[in-house]
From TrEMBL:
<protein>
    <recommendedName>
        <fullName>MalK-like OB fold domain-containing protein</fullName>
    </recommendedName>
</protein>
<dbReference type="GO" id="GO:0016887">
    <property type="term" value="F:ATP hydrolysis activity"/>
</dbReference>
<dbReference type="Pfam" id="PF17912">
    <property type="entry name" value="OB_MalK"/>
</dbReference>
<dbReference type="InterPro" id="IPR040582">
    <property type="entry name" value="OB_MalK-like"/>
</dbReference>
<dbReference type="GO" id="GO:0055052">
    <property type="term" value="C:ATP-binding cassette (ABC) transporter complex, substrate-binding subunit-containing"/>
</dbReference>
<dbReference type="InterPro" id="IPR008995">
    <property type="entry name" value="Mo/tungstate-bd_C_term_dom"/>
</dbReference>
<feature type="domain" description="MalK-like OB fold">
    <location>
        <begin position="52"/>
        <end position="106"/>
    </location>
</feature>
<dbReference type="InterPro" id="IPR047641">
    <property type="entry name" value="ABC_transpr_MalK/UgpC-like"/>
</dbReference>
<dbReference type="InterPro" id="IPR012340">
    <property type="entry name" value="NA-bd_OB-fold"/>
</dbReference>
<dbReference type="InterPro" id="IPR027417">
    <property type="entry name" value="P-loop_NTPase"/>
</dbReference>
Length: 210
């Protein structure tokens, strides 16, 4: 029987701040199929929804014009879009507004008392996983999430798919049911077009300069 294995695969585009694939491992056994649909599989929202452990946190949002520059609207929250995000993205309509899906890795979230930032949310911890070198906290975010990955059709499956994960320090004192305030580092956000599901890529000038 044939097996195809990928071990710690990485991919970084020229002049990109972060890799689009970071130590991805995957095994496809005999008779199994893996399909990436679209002209650029690694730039698809569907792929972002399951690559990584824990996977990327996703939320439905909109980039809108604001008095002092573009703002990111997530549910009832409104936060300034960091200059770092605006500088590296092409195809982001900040004048008329742009519906997006926002992606944040679990490591881009931290306790507000241990981090600085304007993007703070207060949530209730549902599950706490103490893993030795880190602590993962699962919670339901206070804004809508896209229907990207569904493990099943029952209520428990739907709730699990909607959960976000914060990767915190190993010595953090959090138990299930606790309320905690988390800071979102929006400078690390990935943005996807809400209609096409395609990633909004680095600005053309940055790519051309590589």
């Amino acid at each position: 029987m044939a097996t195809v294995a990928i071990d710690r695969l990485g991919k970084t585009f020229p002049n990109a701040a972060r890799p689009v694939l970071d130590e991805v491992s995957l095994t496809v056994g005999d008779g199994e199929f893996l399909v990436l649909v679209g002209p650029s599989g690694c730039g698809k929202l569907f792929v972002a929804g399951f690559i990584g452990s824990p996977a990327m946190n996703l939320a439905l949002g909109r980039v809108e014009p604001g008095t002092d520059g573009p703002v990111l609207a997530l549910g009832t929250h409104r936060w300034p879009v960091p200059a770092a995000v605006l500088d590296r993205l092409a195809g982001l309509n900040t004048d008329a507004g742009h519906d997006v899906v926002v992606g944040l890795r679990p490591g881009a979230l931290g306790l507000a008392s241990h981090a600085t930032g304007q993007a703070d949310i207060t949530v209730a911890a549902i599950t706490v996983e103490a893993l030795g070198d880190e602590t993962n906290v699962l919670f339901l975010p206070p804004f809508p999430v896209p229907d990207v990955i569904r493990a099943g059709t029952g209520p428990a499956d739907t709730e699990l798919a909607a959960m976000w994960t914060a990767r915190l320090e190993p010595d953090v004192s959090v138990t299930a049911g606790d309320d905690l305030t988390l800071a979102l580092d929006l400078a690390q956000a990935y943005l996807f077009d809400a209609v096409t599901g395609m990633a909004l890529h680095p600005a053309e000038a940055d790519v051309a300069a590589a």
